[in-house]
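Handout, page 2. Input:
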Amino acid sequence: MHNYNEEVELVKSFRVCEYSLIEIEKLLNNDTTLTRLFQIEKYYLRWCIKEIPFDLWTKKMFDAFENANPVYLSVIFGYKLNGNLRNAKLRNAKLREAKLRGADLYGADLRNADLRDADLYGADLYGADLYSAKLCNADLRNADLRSADLYSADLRYADLCGADLYGADLRNADLRDADLYGADLYGAGLYSAKLCNADLRNADLRSADLRSADLRDADLRYAKLCGADLYGADLRDADLCGADLRDAITDD
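Output:
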């Protein structure tokens, strides 16, 4: 076992680019080499892994990083993360401010992940598990979140303009002050969701479940609420100018 200073020197001299992908995966799964070095200062680890072009990363490599205690994916902040992460195991991952623009996260497990301030513009999150994920201030414009599990997710101040949330589970989600202008929320589950002061102009909320949702001060101008269930929803001071409420279920 190397002492701390020896390990630091080893990390500083390490050149990821000299290894083949197979060799890198072996290193990631060997407790006496790179995974041991995860416990060294993150500065050096970041310096090493930036040598790997992201498009060459594999799901196995990501899983190895994510599962190596106590290292989190925050070590790669600032590096380009767009690429194929389909069905990746990223539960509890620390991805604050991560650059995930256009990333393929189809079906990814992001339960309890920290994605605050993350750039997820145009990302594919179809069917992703984002249960209780922290997405405050995240850029989710034009993201594909169809059928995604966002139960109890924190989406305060998130930018969801033009996002596709068709059939998404947003029950108990916190969407206060979120920008959902033009978002597709057809059939979405928004039971008990917090939407106070949210921008829902031109949003498609047809057949959405908005029972007991908090929509105080929400901007619902020209929103499509045809067939939506608004029973028990709090609509005090909400702006419903031009909204389509045909066949909507209300307390009245």
